[in-house]
Amino acid sequence: MNERTKPKNTKQPLRKAAYHHGDLRAGLIEATRRLVEEKGPDGFSVSDACRLAGVSTAAPYKHFNDKTDMLVATVLEGMGRHKVNMQACMVGLPSGSPQRIMALGREYVRFALEEHGIFRLKFGGFTDRLDDPRLQEAGESIFEIVLREVASCLGEEEVTAEVRTRGFMLWSFVHGLSFIMHDKKMSMMGGDIDLDTFLGDIARRVLTD
Amino acid sequence: MNERTKPKNTKQPLRKAAYHHGDLRAGLIEATRRLVEEKGPDGFSVSDACRLAGVSTAAPYKHFNDKTDMLVATVLEGMGRHKVNMQACMVGLPSGSPQRIMALGREYVRFALEEHGIFRLKFGGFTDRLDDPRLQEAGESIFEIVLREVASCLGEEEVTAEVRTRGFMLWSFVHGLSFIMHDKKMSMMGGDIDLDTFLGDIARRVLTD
DNA sequence: CCTTTAAAGTTAGTGTATCTAACATATGTT
DNA sequence: AACATATGTTAGATACACTAACTTTAAAGG
After folding, report:
1. Strand, coil or helix: what is A124?
2. Do A171 and B176 touch (CB under 8 A)?
3. Which end of chain B is least crowded, N or C, by CB within 10 Å?
């Protein structure tokens, strides 16, 4: 089993009890992550995060401008892990092989399902701040991992226009699949089809021709 | 141009001023729709809807259980129009032709972009109530429109397992595309590719073999 | 090592949101 | 006309986001 970056759900109290917390910023991000996962992006409150981190409700504002800023920071942390996982899931697989593409797809879906709170937070959790350059950069940086693999799989040296198109197709598909799967609508398919078969089918259709 | 169901943005005040509103339930749904479109699902407040509808902040609770119930009702109204549009967008196109599939895809994306508030509300606007049978039924009923066309396009009489798989692929793809396009990430493709070409390419890849 | 300064907490308070309770007014039935 | 019910109101309880003013701790310089 590949070692992937997990959010550590270790200790409950989440802090030491001292006037200064040590790293409250990180503590609040972790609290936010947990709560968003538990109650969803709606239903999250700064107050809850404070209770979980064991600080007063005014404390966050020394580290974040407002609630949305806190959510953005939490999304960025999640995307960081997501990126690491996307890279890690391919190690050992022969370069230029479709298996690497499939591994990426599997990992994308896994993250979307397993950390669905963060996933939803990223895509539609807040309406303002969508233009935050840190978010855009994080997204593109992950997409580039896919593009490199697609290029390599198509036998291209660089990321050509064709590579971008195919990569975009794959991303759209896997992204949509992630959303739909979570709403249990996989049952619409009859339920007898397995994810790997499905991903393989898609990779073949998009990468050939 | 096909007559499609539009949300009517006619008069500003949205009501007459009388103790009894006439149809406050519909009025609140319309107000909610507008506000969700304007400020996003986050950023929507019942109070705002009341102000827009011109009633007191307690009035909604005679028609809806709570805020989420109001949002669900608004989503259902939107999905109703979405369904009508999906059916309307195919009229005149030869039955069993891929053009009908493409029309469906175009219409799906159009709705997702043009009524992006409702779209996002449906997919991740609220964490509880995801199991509301009305939502599930509305979703399936729209998916069945797609399935019928896919069957017809593949020359099948009924909705076979194969038809479900292909339909599911198409839906995943178009759904993901809708999300990604809104975040302007279409620019990732170089920007020179047009939606119709893209949809056609996808339809071909998914429906052949 | 002591003093000063800035960082990172606190409590208290404001304004607004959701939702409930008690009350008021219209509507429709007999 | 009288009554019941549907549909609105005002007033208030509780919770949340955020700010201001104060306090404690850590860090830096002489």
Report:
1. coil
2. yes
3. N
**Residue A3 Cβ < 7 Å to strand C:** no
Would you say B111 and B101 are in contact if contact means Cβ atoms under 8 Å apart?
A: no
Helical ranges in B4-66 per DSSP H? 24-39, 46-53
Strand C–CB B48 distance below 7 A: yes
- Asked whether strand D has any atom less than 7 Å from the CB of B58, the reply is yes
Residue of B nearest to A139 (CA): B185
Contact A177 B176 (CB under 8 A): yes
Report yes or no on whether pTM surpasses 0.70: yes
Q: How confident is the model at residue A209 (pLDDT cuts 50, 70, 90)?
A: confident
Q: Calculate the alpha carbon distances from B136 to A151, A180, A202, B52, B107 in Å.
A: 39, 12, 26, 30, 20
In total, chain A counts a number of residues equal to 209
Residues 6 or more apart whose CB falls under 8 angstroms from that of A7 comprise A30, A33, A34, A81, A115
d(CA B209, CA B197): 20
pLDDT in tens, A153-202: 999 999 999 999 999 999 999 998 998 888 766 566 666 678 999 999 99
**For residue A65, what are the contacts with CB-CB under 8 A and spacing of at least 6?**
none
Among A90, A112, A91, A113, which Cα is nearest to A103's?
Answer: A90
Nearest by CB to A193, from B43, B165, B174: name it.
Answer: B165
Residues whose CB is less than 8 angstroms from the CB of residue A20 and which lie 6 or more positions away in sequence, other chains included: none
pLDDT for res A10: 33
Tokens 């509808």 belong to: B53
**Are A185 and B127 inside 8 Å of each other by CB?**
no
